[in-house]
Design brief:
Blueprint: H1 10-18, H2 24-42, E1 45-48, H3 50-65, E2 77-81, H4 108-115, E3 119-124, H5 158-165, E4 171-176, H6 182-188, E5 191-194, H7 213-218, E6 220-225, H8 228-238, E7 250-254, H9 261-276, E8 280-284, H10 298-309, E9 315-319, H11 328-331, H12 344-348, E10 353-360, E11 366-373, H13 378-390
Parallel strand pairs: 2-3, 2-4, 7-8, 7-9
Antiparallel strand pairs: 1-3, 4-6, 5-6, 5-10, 9-11, 10-11
Helix pairs in contact: 2-3, 5-6, 8-13
Length: about 400
C-alpha cells in the first residue's frame, strides 16, 4: 500500500483505491490526522465524524475488495457545509439557536453522496446562517485562511474552502446565494462551483426552518474542490439532470468591471492565456443591472437572460472579486466586507458559474477568475475551467 496524497485529485486517489494500492481506511486516517493537526488553527470543521468515517472506510474497503466498486467517490472523504441536514448529526448553520438541532434524515445531496460511496468526514464551519462573506461570525468561532491567518477565508462557505485548501478532505458540498461558495474559493485558492438553478437539489438545507423567500430563490447548492476535473466528478454523481457542453465556446471578456490594478493585471494575464489556448474572445458586458434581492421578476428575467447576455458569446469571464482579500482586522464588524458585486448576478439569473485560481497579488494572496455560462450549459463552464487550469500553452 502507498500513502495517499493529502492534496491529490479525486481521480488520482480513486484510481488508487480501485486498484487497491490505497485503502479507504488509509485515506480517511490521513485526513483525520490532518484535521487533528490543523483544525485547531483553521477552525474549518464544526463537527468531525472521526469514528463514523473510520467505520464507513472499513465498509468501503470490504465492498471494493469484494468487487462492488461504486464509482470515483467510493471511499473518498467529503465535508458537508453545516447548512445541510445530516441524519443523527447536528446541523446548526453555525448559529447558537440551532446548536442542539439534530435532523432525522439526510439532505438529498448527502444521501446521493452516500449512495455513491462517499464518506462524510464532518460538517464544515461557516458564516452564521449564511449571512456574511467573511466567516468571522460563527458560534464555533471564526474560520481562518490557511494561506495567511491574518486574512479572511471568505464566506459563507469559509470552512469548506479552508478545509479543501488545507487537504483536510477532497471536496465539500456547499451553498452559494450571492457568491457564498465562489468567494471563499477565491480567498483560499481553490475551485468553487455553483450549477444552474435546479441542477443540484436544495432539499434538506435546514429542512423545516423558516427562510426568506428571496434567499430560497437565490441560493444554489455548490461544490468546492481543488480542480475543475474533481468538480465534474461531483456534478456527475449529484446532478438531477444532464447538462450541455459547447466544445469551442466563444468567450466574452467582461468590460463593465471595476478591478484594482493588481486584479486587472491578473485578469488580463488570464485573458491572454485563454487567447493563447485558442478561444475566440469578444468584449462583452455582464448583466450587473439586476434587482438584487428584489426577486419579483426573477422568473421572466431568468428566462430572458440567455438571449439578453449570451447572443454573441457562450461564456463570460471576469475576476471573481474586484479587489484583494480583506484582512481580519478590516473585516471585523462588517459581515459583507468581501464584496459580491461580481458574483451575485449569476445567482439572480440562475447561471452556472465557477471560480478558479488565476494567480497571486503582491502580498502572495490568491486571485481568481470567474467563468459564467448560459443556463444548463454547466458542462461548457466546467470544460473551459479545466482547460484554463490544466492545458499547457
Amino acid at each position: 500500500m502507498i500513502s495517499p496524497s493529502a492534496h491529490g485529485s479525486i481521480q488520482e486517489i480513486s484510481d488508487q483505491i480501485r486498484a487497491r494500492t490505497v485503502s479507504p481506511v488509509t485515506v480517511v486516517a490521513a485526513c483525520l490526522q490532518r484535521i487533528e493537526q490543523l483544525n485547531p488553527k483553521l477552525n474549518a470543521f464544526a463537527t468531525v465524524l472521526a469514528d463514523e468515517s473510520r467505520e464507513e472506510a472499513r465498509r468501503a474497503e470490504t465492498e471494493i475488495n469484494a468487487g462492488r466498486w461504486l464509482g470515483p467517490l467510493h471511499g473518498m472523504p467529503i465535508g458537508i457545509k453545516d447548512f445541510y441536514d445530516t441524519a443523527g448529526v447536528r446541523t446548526t448553520a453555525a448559529a447558537r439557536q440551532f446548536l442542539n438541532r439534530i435532523p432525522s434524515s439526510d439532505a438529498e445531496l448527502v444521501a446521493r453522496l452516500k449512495r455513491a460511496g462517499a464518506i462524510i468526514i464532518g460538517k464544515t464551519n461557516m458564516h452564521e446562517l449564511g449571512m456574511g462573506t467573511t466567516s468571522l461570525v460563527s458560534v464555533f468561532g471564526p474560520v481562518r485562511n490557511p494561506l495567511n491567518p491574518d486574512y479572511i477565508a471568505g464566506g459563507s462557505s469559509g470552512g469548506s474552502a479552508a478545509a479543501v485548501a488545507a487537504g483536510l478532505c477532497y471536496a465539500t458540498i456547499d451553498t452559494d446565494a450571492i457568491g457564498s461558495c465562489r468567494l471563499p474559493a477565491a480567498c483560499c485558492g481553490v475551485v468553487g462551483f455553483k450549477g444552474t438553478y435546479g441542477l443540484l437539489s436544495a432539499r434538506g438545507i435546514l429542512e423545516g426552518e423558516q427562510a426568506d423567500p428571496a434567499i430560497l430563490l437565490l441560493a444554489h447548492p455548490a461544490i468546492t474542490t481543488r480542480s475543475a476535473d474533481d468538480t465534474t466528478i461531483l456534478v456527475k454523481a449529484l446532478a438531477a439532470r444532464e447538462t450541455r457542453t459547447i466544445r469551442e465556446p466563444r468567450v466574452g471578456v467582461v468590460t463593465n468591471i471595476k478591478p484594482t490594478q493588481s486584479v486587472r493585471v491578473a485578469f488580463e494575464a488570464a485573458v491572454e492565456r485563454l487567447r493563447t489556448l485558442g478561444y475566440q474572445l469578444k468584449k462583452a458586458p455582464a448583466p450587473f443591472d439586476n434587482p438584487g434581492f428584489d426577486v419579483r421578476n426573477i422568473v421572466p428575467d431568468r428566462a430572458a437572460v440567455a438571449a439578453h447576455s449570451f447572443r454573441e458569446v457562450d461564456a463570460l469571464v471576469l475576476p471573481t472579486t474586484n479587489g484583494s482579500i480583506p484582512t481580519v482586522k478590516q473585516a471585523e464588524g462588517n459581515p459583507l466586507a468581501l464584496s459580491a458585486e461580481n458574483t451575485m448576478f449569476a445567482n439572480y439569473f440562475g447561471l452556472p458559474a465557477i471560480s478558479v485560481p488565476s494567480g497571486f497579488d503582491a502580498k502572495g494572496l490568491p486571485l481568481a477568475l470567474q467563468i459564467v455560462g448560459r443556463p444548463w450549459e454547466d458542462g461548457t463552464v466546467l470544460e473551459l475551467a479545466n482547460t484554463f487550469l490544466t492545458r499547457r500553452m
